[in-house]
Amino acid sequence: MSERVVILGGTSGIGLAAAELLLTRGNEVWIAGRDEERLERALKALDVPAAKGRTVDATDEERLAAFFAEVGPFDHLVVTLTANGGVTSLADLTASELRRHHEGKLIPHLLAVKAALGTLREDGSVTLVGAISSQLSAAGLLVLASANAAVETASRILAAELAPRRVNAVSPGVIDTPWWDWVPEAARTETVAGAAAGTAVGRPGRPEEVAHAIAFLVENTYTTGVVLPVDGGARLGVQRG
Ligand SMILES: NC(=O)c1ccc[n+]([C@@H]2O[C@H](COP(=O)([O-])OP(=O)(O)OC[C@H]3O[C@@H](n4cnc5c(N)ncnc54)[C@H](OP(=O)(O)O)[C@@H]3O)[C@@H](O)[C@H]2O)c1
User: How does pLDDT run across 101-143, given as a tens digit for each residue?
Assistant: First the structure.
């Protein structure tokens, strides 16, 4: 059955992969991000009439309201947006970095869900994206982990508050996407591989692998209040020799 899906953050990485998969399953998919060129590139890559897109900054409540008014009634909301970076020790932490990261992740996630409520189907779904950092205790993850833990906790609370709408989250491990572009080019491959070295499967994940989990949460009409890890076993503390 064709349904209408909105993916805020759908112009890149995990969101774009989710758009691609949900389109192949016969849905109409609206993607949104802030950057016009990125949006155009994504729509060109998707290259089907059922893929629609608009520029939206999800920290802007007026823009969110106008966007959802234009989309009209819809069935599923997926939020895959974030600020990048956010790795710092407490000693080096600045208030502006703390604000930048929470304003880049928790705040737009919650504003997006709130803005969607007027037009999101009563028995539709919301899927948010946290991160495995929420479960880890490594030095330097304070800001990143706290923003993602907040999103994951929010998903469970919203599952209770917005019922019968379903609300879930995925919790990805290290996924090779443009999110890592904040790492200097020369160090990027090594950094991504290094960050994935503690996984049981021994490699970074692919955006398509997280998209597969998102599609499951969108489609499974009896799953709600779940935070689904898609992390190659990063939580298991496996030390590869
Ligand atoms: N990649 C990883 O290793 C990893 C690991 C764990 C969790 N995650 C999580 O997975 C989600 C997707 O990340 P990704 O790796 O796919 O990152 P990505 O490739 O950088 O994509 C992020 C998307 O969000 C959009 N975006 C950012 N801020 C926005 C805003 N205020 N309003 C609207 N759109 C906004 C970006 O477009 P514009 O910049 O044009 O706005 C882009 O489309 C994020 O929540 C991230 O925290 C990623």
Answer: 999 999 999 999 999 999 999 999 999 999 999 998 889 999 9
Any ligand 1 atom below 6 A from CB of 181 = no
Asked if the structure places residue 204 within a domain, the reply is yes
Q: How many CA atoms lie within 13 A of 54 on its CB side?
A: 15
133 inside domain: yes
Residue found by looking up tokens 């479960």 in the block? 135
Q: Which residues pair with 198 in a beta bridge?
A: none
User: Would the CB of 108 count as within 6 Å of ligand 1?
Assistant: yes
Residue 18 structure tokens = 């989710």
Please tell me the pTM assigned to this model: 0.97
Tell me the CATH number at 204: 3.40.50.720
Distance (angstroms) between ligand 1 centre and the Cα of 83 equals 7
The domain total for the chain is 1
Residue with tokens 């992390």: 231
Tell me the pairing of strands 227-230 and 166-172.
parallel
Pocket test for ligand 1, best of 6, 43, 67, 82 (most atoms within 8 A of CB): 82
Looking at the predicted structure, is the pLDDT value of residue 40 above 80?
A: yes
Residue 241, domain member (yes or no): no
- Structure confidence at residue 240 (pLDDT): 66
Q: Which domain holds residue 162?
A: 4-232
Say if 134 falls within a structural domain: yes
Gap from CA of 11 to ligand 1 centroid (Å)? 9
